[in-house]
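User: Hello, can you help with two protein structures?

Assistant: Certainly.
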Amino acid sequence: MKLYRMVKKDRCRDMSASGKADRWNYATDPCLHAKDHPAMCLVESDLVTGLFTVPDGYVIVEYEVPDSIRYIREEQLPVGWDQFPFGFETREFGSALLQQAEKLVLAFPSPEMNRQWNYLVNLRHPLAKEIRIIDDYPPNRKQPPAGI
């Protein structure tokens, strides 16, 4: 399966986790946060930050990831999973699943958009060594010439 994430150019070939906690994991549970389409990296980033622009120096990284995925349904999630700010319950829930390492990828419903998923790639899973970086590229095209 292909997954995508937006990162700073100087980290685009780095397969390590950021070392930061997020909605679905503690900093001690290393994972990559990814999307199933490059455009979703931009959309969800804009929804979370409100910047509606791509910060300078960021690229989209495309990965080939082994098909080992578990989809988590909304009814399985802790109460308040989609709230802002989110509570520690979501971190506890996601980190527990990462520690079990049953699947390489965990798919959580996006709290920002219906019918979209947030993917956590578990870097402790044995299949993590099979992840390949296919490409990296700037998310925006250059501006067209005036008059076009």
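That covers the first. Now for the second protein you mentioned:
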Amino acid sequence: MTEPTRNQEAENRPSALKGTYCLVTGATSGIGKEIARGLVTAGAHLLFVCRDRTRGEATLAELNRCSRDPFVRMVVADLSSLLEVRRAAEEIHRHLPRLDVLVNNAGTHDLRPAVSADGFDRMIATNHLGPFLLTNLLTDLLELGAPSRIVMVASEAHRSVVHIDPRTFADPGSYGPVGSLSVYARSKLLNVLVTQEIARRWTTRGITANAFCPGLVSTGLTRNIPMGSTLFSLAERSPLVRNAREGAEQALCLAGDPRFTGRSGGFYSTTPGAVLLPPSIHRFRPGLQRAVWERSEELVALP
């Protein structure tokens, strides 16, 4: 199937997203804020989840100014805490009659290991377990919005993972700035594996899921990459590094472009030359994807 051009994407999104109910995590800065902005300017009803109330209120006021509709809501929650995720899901149910689009964008890159409130590596808890639990707790709203879409913000970093153990992927460990890159890559591979498992489990329920890499984007996340701020500041005027608005473009396409209707389990990358790279071998291991899903269910205490 021919991929839509950028002009076609811009033309298709407003009509497709107008009146939809959308949720974005991590929407107070960077790509998340630009995804949220793109949704509300296209006429969507928006609810976003953020960790910091002060930044959230500033974002809420900003989005209301550019919204075509007064329905913009905020829920405050730290996705690394399963208790807060459950509380957030309850609050989301009070706000939304259904959910047409869920964008799992929130993520972190910790240079040093930290343990979440539930005893997991905090980076894995924030980037994978929290979004996994939230997505599962919102399944009923996604079914009410069917055909609904899940958009997972992943990364090309997932290709670098050679081995992943479904039993121990969330265990706390010891690592420094360089070692943190492998943990971050693991969390992004988990995003991709879950996306593919959703495609197998939920497509018959009218729910599709796709993951994407926004490319090299100069956002606050680069501050937590070894020498990230320095390297990105040097490269941000080159074609290799994008701004947050450009990084959000693929997410908005997956969320609203009619050409992606019914398409599920894909990984899309906007990184130049990525199409020439071999895909991760783990994307072709259904047994691993199922094992990661079932272990994640155990860790977040889903029935």
